[in-house]
Amino acid sequence: TLFRSTSISGKSSGAMSYCFIDDAMILSANAESLKFVIAQAKGAGSPTLADSDDFNSTLRAVSASGPGKIEVYVNIKQIIQTVTSKEEAGKIKPILTNLGLDNVTSFAFSIEGGATSGKALLKVDGAKKGLMKLLEVESGPIQVPRFVSQSANSVSFVNVNMKKAFDEMVKILTAFSPQIAMMINMPLSPPGPQGEPPLQLKTGIFDHL
Known about the structure:
Elements: E1 2-7, E2 15-21, E3 24-28, H1 31-41, H2 53-62, E4 70-74, H3 76-86, H4 92-98, E5 104-111, E6 118-124, H5 131-134, H6 162-176, H7 178-183, H8 201-204
Antiparallel strand pairs: 1-2, 2-3, 4-5, 5-6
């Protein structure tokens, strides 16, 4: 096993530690994390990510069956805990809560070698809210619009319920500032000369989408 520490950027703050364990090269920006990996490789029994139920269930949901697959797992819950624990002012946690990110646990995706498709999963512990609810897509039949030419090579569909998305956007803005949220209901244009009602964002646009 070879262990070294070198500076990638020429500054002490940019030190990158690495080692070789058999034919695997392990890199880390944190020397203590690298030492933990070495200890585990030598048989230490400390809990690891592989012992996590979330890790195993999330990767199992997106795992490709063929050879040459690429799988990526992001422990969002741990990232949020690390960021909020280091932030002394306590301003980040309310922002994450208002955005609906406080119960997002992980993200994973996989791509099978030689394939043009893959799987991805953003896992939420509990009900979706905030940005997760805003970007929620719904299953539905593929209905190609009549204006799409026969010469089109490909067509992509994303089914988003715009009415629900608008309501969730109002909830997010209300959590940050009720005053800003109220501005959404202000008319975008004055009443028409023939008595037409003023144009409003919800009733005039989003309710028709």
